[in-house]
Amino acid sequence: MNSENGEKADRYLSFMNIDCYKHASDVIDCILEVTKDERYNNRFWEAFTAKIPQCYYEHKSDEKVLYHICSSVFYIEELFEESAHSLGLELMTTCEYQCC
Q1: Any domain includes 74
Q2: DSSP letters along 18-66, please?
Q3: Domain count, the chain
């Protein structure tokens, strides 16, 4: 439920009351945090990071950020599982189920 106005978020109707940009941006924040550690960084994550849309860095809501996350769900989940980053995994799960 959206605590602000009591309306339920429902992605199957309209994505109304779901801030998918924020969910995706939070996931990117966690990815960048985890991949600072050399044990979890590799060529895939270097390429992934290079392709993060500029609007993410400018904090401008844009579906490109969400597309970037949704196109790599399984890789992102694996990264968070391997690094034991429980917050990242929780945020990815929320983003996937509500927005992807």
Answers
A1: yes
A2: --HHHHHHHHHHHHHHHTTSGGG--HHHHHHHHTS-HHHHTT---HHHH
A3: 1
Residue 10 has pLDDT above 60, yes or no: no
Q: Is residue 64 part of a domain?
A: yes
Rg of the chain (C-alpha set):
14
Q: What is the largest CA-CA distance in the chain?
A: 44
Q: Which residue range is the domain that position 82 belongs to?
A: 20-99
Residue 55 lies in a domain: yes
Q: What does the block give as tokens for 26?
A: 């939070």
Convert the pLDDT of each residue in 53-83 to its tens digit.
999 999 998 899 999 999 999 999 999 999 9
**Is the full-model pTM beyond 0.85?**
no
The residue assigned the tokens 């941006």 is 25
Q: Residue 7 falls within a domain, yes or no? A: no
pLDDT at 44 over 90: yes
